[in-house]
Amino acid sequence: MAKHKRSDSLTILQRAIGTRIAWARELVIPNQSECARLLGVDASTLNKIERGDRAPSVFLIAALSNRLRVSTDFLLKGVLNGRTDEELALRLAALHPELVLQRQDMAPDRDKSTTSDIPDQPTRPDEDLH
């Protein structure tokens, strides 16, 4: 049990997140118990989260986002945007070269057979490069 009462704004946010989880789950996996099983949580836990009585962990938010095919922005903030912001993705890649920037993930409507998806062909040593 918590020692201090949660602020009203956090309670409202927790309930809103639970509501958005329920909305997405009802469209993708109508059976709450089945969804909980697929996520590896108890059905009562998912029920409490959807009612706003319990906060989901960051790991559960990630799993829900993946399983329900919605963005974490939708679950956490109510922003219905399934794409990664391209400018932000480019800035992250510049700051963290270990990240792999995948163009097809950033723009799912594009034709996936664009030339940017085709790896460079190795040059034969006997080819004239001039």
UniProtKB/TrEMBL annotation:
It holds the Pfam family HTH_3. This is Transcriptional regulator. Residues 32-75 form the HTH cro/C1-type domain. It comes from Gluconobacter cerinus. Residues 102-130 are annotated as: Disordered. One of its GO terms (molecular function) is DNA binding. Signal peptide: none annotated. InterPro entries: Cro/C1-type_HTH, Lambda_DNA-bd_dom_sf.
